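Q: A reviewer asked whether we had any structural model of the full assembly, not just the individual parts. We don't, so I'm hoping you can provide one. Inputs are below.
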Amino acid sequence: MTEYDLPVVERHPYLWGNVDTPGHLPDAAGDAMSALGAVPPGPAVDPANARLPQTSLPAEVTAALTAALGAEHVDSGRSARVRRTRGFSTPDLLKLRSGDATDAPDAVLFPGSHDDVVRVLEICTEHRVAVVPFSGGTSVVGGLAPVRAGFAGVVALDLRRLDRLVGVDEISRTAVLETGLRGVAAERLLAERGYTLGHFPQSYEMATVGGYAAARSAGQSSAGYGRFDEMVVGLTVATPRGTLTLGTAPKSAAGPDLRQLVLGSEGAFGVITSVTVRVRPRPAARVFEGWKFGSFAEGAAALRALVQDGVRPTVLRLSDEAETAVNLADPDAAAGGSGSGGCLVIAGYEGDAEEVEATRAAAAERLLAHGGQNQGAEPGEKWREGRFRGPYLRDPLFDAGALVETLETATFWSNIESLKTAVSEAVQGALNAQDCANLVMCHISHVYETGASLYFTVVTRQLDDPVAQWAKAKEAANAAIRAHGATISHHHGVGTDHRETLALELGPIGIDMIKAVKSSVDPAGVLNPGILIG
Amino acid sequence: MTEYDLPVVERHPYLWGNVDTPGHLPDAAGDAMSALGAVPPGPAVDPANARLPQTSLPAEVTAALTAALGAEHVDSGRSARVRRTRGFSTPDLLKLRSGDATDAPDAVLFPGSHDDVVRVLEICTEHRVAVVPFSGGTSVVGGLAPVRAGFAGVVALDLRRLDRLVGVDEISRTAVLETGLRGVAAERLLAERGYTLGHFPQSYEMATVGGYAAARSAGQSSAGYGRFDEMVVGLTVATPRGTLTLGTAPKSAAGPDLRQLVLGSEGAFGVITSVTVRVRPRPAARVFEGWKFGSFAEGAAALRALVQDGVRPTVLRLSDEAETAVNLADPDAAAGGSGSGGCLVIAGYEGDAEEVEATRAAAAERLLAHGGQNQGAEPGEKWREGRFRGPYLRDPLFDAGALVETLETATFWSNIESLKTAVSEAVQGALNAQDCANLVMCHISHVYETGASLYFTVVTRQLDDPVAQWAKAKEAANAAIRAHGATISHHHGVGTDHRETLALELGPIGIDMIKAVKSSVDPAGVLNPGILIG
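A: Here is a predicted structure for the entire assembly that you could use as a starting point for your response.
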């Protein structure tokens, strides 16, 4: 099975992805859990018994929404509401596992068109009802639990009916995609026409095109295909004031690029209902390889040399010693260190056969020159096969009493090493202070000429209040990121978790720019209140 | 002489560039002018005799500015004011040639630091004085003549003292440039360190780094080096509310990308005082070649194949039949058609020798496959040598009674042919209706996977009121661009000339977003009023 033929599955309230293909911890994981002192916390509360908020929508709101969408597209049932309670961060999942669904929306709406969305926003503006766009529901930064205080209610907008590939312009190599399309569904529709977006975030099985756009997603193939915000050339946005349409050319000097203002707005400025994106022919050939480096610094220097020399594999990532040892590159396979130490680089090449070979040769020359040792195709193919399996491991880890979470940032190359050290030490310090032995792993998975991302995976034992436990580690990480002048998120977004750090990163003038735009398009403030900005 | 060792020269009120290297019309141009019916209009008015506005700054404002900057950095003299009267569009130059300097600022300020600029903006906000950033003064869209009504005066901010290369980060391949640096000066400073921006707009000899950023410049080498807005990773902006600093990583998901909001803001949101830009090693090798295609459509298909296949020459441009015939590629050399018809492509390759050869071979394969005939290095080298000479020809053309102006747009590939036809016909129609025989030439000079720019050069005879004459042609062009869904500017910007069309392009919600940001950072509305938005 490749990334082009995964099924579209229903979202579970707290289990990742396709529940028919759950993650399994390797046998050796038991020892590792014991070493961390993890104790299984008992089973999760059945979602059917979760505590829901007592609120409900005013009858006149329900009537107006029902009149607009049809009764079958307004669901106030417990199951629908619990399924749209928060996102997939570790705190989100732990809360739901503990039976806390108090952030559930009052109703779930299923608009069938852009005009439906515009009408819903009119109604919600008139009645001061908060609106959270909720399709894939994969936010890991608290982007799906808007402020309730001051509003007559909260509705979740599930865009799943906006699922069309509206058209492909084969000359311009663009496609118009509705934003309720899951990533897998979009790729399947494009594949039928011979194209691919090339956008494969780890959340690929669950995330939607709208989420990609609203939260500035970056996929595992970003070295070759770019970030999602680099693929978007046009947007249609439903706002409380009506329709905003952007994108008249690939690039323009007609004022500020408002596309880049809507991308990353996380539902605060409007609901993106379709995007026009650059597509590419489905690759005819691909090769994934592993390379081993003696240290993270050497590996980083090699990646930097590639991207600064203009040699762009499709996938390029570097695991540090800890991550290499745990072999997260193949999380469903046998655990434990590779035994040989060092830092693993995965380099993947896609395109026509000639292009793959040319890029591979140019990359190999530089990887060798920087001290890399070719590990052949096996580690590359193992990584490729397991590329979407990482999140599946979190569920059995929770069951085993582990706390596992990720966080990420980006900075310029000259700052990479010190940022990595600072964030690692901050997280370790916060967990050690709680007497929690821990493992902090890191990789680079997105590279640019001037810098790169850093992605951390943290594993420790769960305390009695694991949400509070993690909050201390996360706060320390945020402070370290800010102190080192890096960005609070490379591709996860802001949500509520990064809101305060964003305010420091952009400063009061920058934040006020965002607030001014929001006030302009959403005078009643009903769009995802409390997300992105306070 | 290469682009790396051109001098920094003083801006003349209405003559382009280095007045020691004026443009000369080729002998054959006389016949062409006669054919168009051009009659020399008599000599331009000496700038020393131009009509200046009667206004002056209130004494308290002058006192405050003098206290802030020093008397030697506040110049209310006639010469300084006339030199900062409007930009370099044809209407701008014709007005000044006729002796009309009524848009002159009341004073010219020379701040020496970012803090000086912040202080000036405070003073101007307090006293409601309009501020126009004016360094290169090369706007061709009316971006340098702000609204005067309702303000106590107008000051031009000449940033020439902000001329430092603040630093180079050799690991991250970034440089911090102050924005008063002329393009030529920035390249010279970077060259001393072994680097280049690779940004060479036709205005290169006069434009500044600040103008590049504020107006979303794209240079002739954009195929290889990208647009200026793609080079910027950080910005420092002086606003009436203080300092805004943006750019913590190459890319981020920490909310909307506010860098892309400031880029293209044309002085309406603040004064960009420094930028952090991606730099590259100075190329060791370069080759420029010419290719001939049977038609514009064939040439465009070839360019599209290159960029969609990921083959990126440094320079890639296609002249249509008319432009090829007039041989604008070498404007100072013998005029007249090449005799062989067709459409000329210039493909330039820069980098290390191996890279140049590899890209050249990959490009040649595709250019041949699309029907191109290799013309060898001569046309390429001629284009390269004359690459900044185009604007020099406008001055003698004015003297000869010709009206010459350019305009540009961009669209997606599938729309290129119909847009080119529509704009050409619109301009020709508007001039023919005024009984003005004309020549409309076009080229593609910036290519993207999904589309390209179109750049038009128009030559006709001057009527008695050439400003009104051109306005009709320009209005028709703007309408055609809008009707075909293209952008009103690929790289010239908005200024006042494109303001109304921008409002149609972005729609009321988009324009209100811009206005909201402006109100937030510039509550008194003193920053370049009337530019970008009304």
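A: Points you may want to mention in the reply: Chain A has 18 helices and 18 strands. The domain at 165-281 of chain A is CATH 3.30.465.10 (Uridine Diphospho-n-acetylenolpyruvylglucosamine Reductase; domain 3).
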